[in-house]
Structures are given as C-alpha cells and as structure tokens.
Write a structure and sequence with these properties.
The chain is an alpha/beta fold. It is 48% helix and 18% strand. It is built from twelve helices and eleven strands. It has a six-stranded mixed sheet, sandwiched between helices.
C-alpha cells in the first residue's frame, strides 16, 4: 500500500512538473527566429499567404519568421523536412491541400504521414477556382457547357497544371457531378495550361482567381462559375457552382499552419492565438481577398476535422476517376 501511494504521488508530481515546464517554456517562447517551410517554389499565391501571415506572426512573437521555400516532388520534399524537424516550435510548415490530403491518396508510399507526423494549428485561408473556357466555345454558363458536353461526350477537353493537382481534381469532380466525359490534358504547370487555353488548344480550365481575372477582363477567356460557396469579392459577377445547380463542386486550394508532432500543447495554443488575431486584422483580410482568397483562422481541432474530411472527400474522387500519380 505504501509503495502504491508513493507511486501515485510521484506520478502526480511528474505530471504537474511537466505541465509547469511546458507552460514556462511557452511563456519564454520564442527566443530565436522561427522557420516557416513552404513546400513550393518562391512566388505565387502560396508565398502571398505565407509572407502575409509570417510577417505579422513575427511581429506578434517578437522574433522573425523566416520563409524557407523547399519545392519539388509535389510538396513531398518540404513536407519530409518539416516532419523530421525538432518538435520545439521553431519549425512551422505551410500545409496545403496537395501535401496534406491529395498526396496520401495518390502515392502508396510517402516519407511522411500527415496525420501521424503533424499537428494542425490553424487553417489560414482558402482560395476557390474559376472555370474558364476559351471564347470560341459556344457556352456562357455551366448549364450550357454541361448540355454541350453531354451531346459531345469524349470530344471536349480540359487542361490542368498536372496530374493529381487541385485544378485537375476540380475538373474530375465536375465531370462526376454532371455525368460528363471530358478529356483531361495535363501540363507541367498552370501557366502553360493557361497559355494553351488562350491559344485555343484546350477548351476549359479550372484555375485560381488571381491568375484568371486578367484574361477574363481582356476577353481572352470566359468565366463560367467559381467553386466557392459564395461569390468572390474579387469576381462578384461570376456565379457559383451552387447557383449553377452543382453545389458538390464547391472546393478550392487552401493553406494552413501545422507543426511537427509532439510540439508542446502550450506552444500550439500560443501560435493559434496569434494567428487567429492576425486573421481578424482588416489589412490581412483586404490583401488576401484581393487575391481571391477567404481568410479563416480556425482552431486546431477544427483544422484537424477539416483535413480529415478533405482527405476522405478527395480519396473518393481519385478512386472514382482512376487517377494514378505519375
């Protein structure tokens, strides 16, 4: 009995001590610059989100947040580096739809596991896609496009930035929702796909709002619908897929902060608290909305549920479409 009481007392003491150490560490954190790994090359919407939140987070924490672009292999290189980093709060990772939810469904073996190796902090933003068509295609709405494609099954095509990318899967989701046979034409990057759409070599393309708008305004491409739940402030004249009768097509790219597994809970709480405040700042909202993005800033638990739902959703689409990673 004596030994049992001693053991219980010791266990309670060690638990309390660990909690005290974690809280004390979080209060002192950070004492040096923090690295923010981006699993993409420099430039583009990802950098805008990362640098906007990173700069603000650095100001709030009193230490610089340094972006570290580690692109390549569909984000696998950057994800592996982040997953293997020390769980001390000095390495953050910009988790996105590809590395967190698409890759696990596309590749049989990965050097990281999004669920095992990372813990979510906050979903920062989400960016919908706009469905563009070449003006030579005789359609001005999703309804007209679906009718045309049903009458010409297997004859129309859509471009993407590559096999298994977000804009590829948006096209596949639309095909499944509308019961269409449209041929996928993958490119090595979305910019090449846009160029061929403008040239008339492909007929349609799902693409993020920011790179789409200049071509719509110039008349070189026609916007039929946007994949967000509500119309975008950046493109208020473009109807949603929900308005067009296909709410299931609502989707988009997204970016959030995750950290290596086993980072102390007190640090995760501190990071989330600061990111949530940043997400509510008007200048952050204005800047990202101008890029066609929606600022979110949810909780770690909410982000975890979101990631799991996205992984399950896209897994079904990938299997139904028979997509294999190249």
């Amino acid at each position: 009995m004596f030994n049992k009481r001693v053991w219980i007392s010791f266990s309670l003491f060690t638990s309390a001590f660990s909690l005290w150490v974690g809280c004390a560490f979080a209060q002192a954190y950070p004492t040096r610059p923090i690295r923010l790994i981006l699993p993409f090359p420099a430039g583009g919407p990802t950098d805008i989100v990362a640098r906007t939140f990173g700069a603000k987070l650095g100001e709030a924490l009193g230490q610089q947040v340094v972006p570290d672009n580690r692109g390549g292999a569909s984000g696998v290189i950057g994800a592996e580096i982040a997953a293997r980093a020390a769980p001390d709060g000095y390495t953050l990772f910009l988790g996105a739809i590809g590395v967190m939810t698409l890759n696990p469904n596309l590749y049989q073996k990965l050097p990281y596991d999004p669920q095992r190796d990372f813990q979510p902090v906050s979903l920062l933003s989400a960016s919908p896609y706009i469905l563009l068509v070449n003006p030579s295609l005789p359609v001005r709405s999703v309804k007209e496009l679906a009718a045309l494609a049903k009458g010409r099954q297997g004859q129309l095509n859509f471009a993407s930035g590559g096999m298994g990318t977000g804009n590829h899967l948006s096209g596949e989701l639309f095909k499944l929702a509308a019961g269409l046979d449209i041929v996928h034409v993958p490119y090595k990057g979305a910019s090449l796909a846009v160029g061929d759409l403008i040239a008339g070599n492909v007929q349609m393309l799902f693409i993020n709002v920011l790179p789409a708008l200049p071509h719509v305004k110039s008349g070189r491409a026609r916007a039929l619908a946007i994949t967000s739940k509500r119309r975008s402030p950046a493109a208020p004249d473009v109807p949603t897929f929900g308005e067009a009768g296909y709410p299931i097509v609502e989707n988009g790219s997204w970016h959030g902060i995750v950290v290596p597994a086993r980072v102390p809970a007190a640090i995760v709480k501190r990071l989330h608290g600061e990111l949530a405040k940043i997400a509510r700042q008007p200048d952050v909202k204005d800047r990202l909305e101008a890029q066609g993005a929606e600022v979110i800033g949810n909780t770690p638990d909410e982000f975890a549920v979101f990631i799991a739902a996205e992984r399950a959703r896209w897994g079904k689409v990938i299997r139904a479409a028979g997509i294999k990673a190249e």
